[in-house]
Design brief:
homodimer; 33% helix; four-stranded parallel beta sheet; globular; 19 strands; 407 residues; nine-stranded antiparallel beta sheet; alpha+beta
């Protein structure tokens, strides 16, 4: 396949496997303006699949930065209702939602972290009902990627054509081949078997250790469910929320996490890098945190609300995956989290506990799972990571050895 | 000035002279995604002028065409409330509104005209409150242009760099020089003197004749006001709604227009060309209409509602203006209407009659001025156009001779 054919295959994969779009279903797309030549391929794939209407919401990194830097704060924090309404209008018609990441990882470097955090919080509060809808799998959604020039230059600083290089990496990591949909069916089947094994074991806790100094015990709540790439809609259809995805994930028990964990890759939070950090947990709460890069930003993230100091996701990714075999850092969570075991600060997926989507927010923690305005993944996997599963009776089962599945 | 400097001067002109943006005022911009490198200059000019916040709404011509062609009609016509809300949110804070035209003039050629008209009507109905707000000059607004490749190729089919050629034409027509704001002050002064003379004359009617066959008498309502480029806000500030602008305009008396008028340039209506047409009027109403190009589209326009067969604007533009001296067709109303006398089908500006902005819609026609969901300019000026002003007492005063002001 040449690049155009591969881009079309990627577009088709996102519509047919990512969203599994149905005849008569609306679709919203959010994308950077740089993607103006690629998004029409996605729109065509959607109409080919029978989309009833497609609406694209564009964003412009440099203009967003200018506004975050220069707008009057009173107006910056007054998030309009239409930002939520434009998502709900289509979601309430059963619409699918496709989001392209790809902004410059350093887009917001140098801006006032406290002001950014006030903005992020205001926006998250406004969009909370839509975030809950997606985290409950009430509508099909997918996160994919478009390689903007600034992102590509960060990943391939010495390349002559960094965008081409990053396209190749995205297409490879996303398993885009001539029969991409078929290849993905097989991949999902493999991930599903891992999830089934973990669900059968129903461990009480996981114990992480590696040479970075990580020594962390993560309790798992009763009735936790390990999920793989496929999500199930209330009415029974399926979708794949991330492309690529290599993970099997569940929710930790919010107040039963103890020890210390070291990050293994930088995390890009709202256009600002946080790197080389450790978090110390006592009874689930982060009681100490220190980053060599972006420490102030890390502290702002932890201080978002009373749930942002607790974990909301445990995800297992073998060190030996197509993405990590590229041996590159994407500076983008969608890719980097699928190259390494990761955790997330903040809100847990209610779908990862039995009956979770029926619970009110106030009931979630009673059942062991955290809630927050944020959900921020960070990578902890290394080539020497060992994870033990601990059963109710205290017996120990190797889950990961040297960064890969033990069995 | 090199091109970048000229583009920055254009951006500054739109903010400082077009919108006359004030400290603490929000700004919305609508623009094609192709303008991604230029719009940041406008955003910077706005923040430099003290904008409280700038919000850009992007559009993508080819994706709009795909949706107008392929979306399910039920969804296409269900215009979301947020389309209005996103304008109102800022307008209600006193926000200014800047719109960049520049889509491919043939963007929608070949699509079903009736379906397009149903869409245009549904969208106009939803946006009617905002259209009224702008046509009553309640908020500062400006229409400017960005040269997309498809538009540039239509205007300069043989040029090696059509976008550069069209940039030059736009910047020249918009009187962008190193002291563009100063040049515009002088230009506005000249236009204002024309309007003052016409207001003093207070003609009862205008009589148009030329060699195309035009022989049209247009009644003017009692209390009509000739306006020039500058519009006045309710609280007293000013703005310039079009850049470029060469016109002096008022409202005709909706039911006192008789005779025939021939178009002198193509009209691009919603991405579809209408050309070489004539309209025959009896007591204000178009009773016969025929276009050699786009006749079906013309009929759909006339059939929009009961006001779209009546005129809502009479505008006088000398044949000898910077734009018409370029001797080129822009295939874009913003430029072509400022190269020739023009009329508009549909809604009249309530600001062009004494006390007009205080009137309810149902009262407008009693005072002589038309209302409709549409307002569509079309060009009738030629190098041999003569216009006579007819006073109440029947005496005749030459207004235009051979396409230019008679005095």
């Amino acid at each position: 396949m040449n690049r155009i054919e591969a881009q079309k295959a990627y577009a088709k994969l996102l519509i047919e496997m990512g969203l599994q779009l149905k005849e008569g279903q609306p679709l919203t797309i959010s994308a950077p303006v740089e993607a103006q030549d690629f998004i029409p391929m996605v729109v065509d794939a959607a109409y080919d699949a029978g989309a009833s209407i497609v609406q694209v919401f564009w964003r412009h990194g440099k203009i967003s930065r200018a506004t975050l830097e220069r707008a009057r704060e009173e107006d910056l924090l007054d998030i309009p209702d239409y930002v939520l309404d434009q998502e709900f209008f289509y979601a309430k018609k059963g619409g699918a939602s496709l989001h392209f990441t790809g902004d410059d990882p350093e887009l917001l470097t140098g801006l006032d972290p406290q002001r950014l955090q006030r903005y992020n919080k205001a926006r998250s509060e406004k969009l909370k009902p839509f975030m809950e809808m997606t985290m409950n799998d009430e509508v099909p959604w997918n996160v994919a990627a478009y390689p903007t020039l600034d992102w590509a230059k960060k990943v391939f600083p010495d390349a002559e054509n960094p965008v081409d290089e990053l396209w190749d990496a995205i297409l490879y990591a996303s398993r885009v081949t001539e029969d991409a949909v078929g290849a993905w069916r097989e991949h999902l089947e493999n991930l599903d078997q891992r999830a089934q094994w973990l669900n059968k074991e129903a461990f009480s806790a996981l114990h992480y250790t590696n040479s970075l100094g990580t020594d962390l015990t993560i309790g798992l709540p009763k009735g936790h469910i390990w999920a793989a790439a496929s999500s199930t809609l209330p009415e029974g259809g399926e979708f794949v929320a991330n492309i690529p995805t290599e993970e099997v994930f569940t929710s930790p028990e919010w107040n039963r996490i103890n020890g210390v964990v070291y990050s293994s890759m930088p995390l890009i939070y709202g256009g600002q890098p946080i790197d080389q950090f450790s978090l110390t947990f006592e009874d689930g709460k982060v009681v100490a945190a220190e980053a060599k890069v972006g420490n102030e930003i890390l502290q702002e993230l932890l201080n978002t609300d009373d749930g942002s100091r607790y974990l909301g996701e445990v995800a297992l990714v073998p060190y030996d995956s197509p993405i990590s075999n590229l041996k590159m850092l994407f500076y983008n969570t969608l890719f980097d989290e699928n190259a390494a075991c990761h955790l997330a600060l903040g809100k847990a997926y209610p779908t990862t506990i039995e009956g979770g989507t029926e619970l009110e927010e106030s009931q979630l923690r009673e059942h062991g799972i955290n809630h927050s305005l944020v959900h921020e993944d960070f990578m902890v996997g290394t080539s020497d990571l060992n994870i033990d599963g601990i059963r109710e009776d205290g017996s120990v089962v190797p889950v990961f050895r040297s960064g890969n599945w033990a069995q």
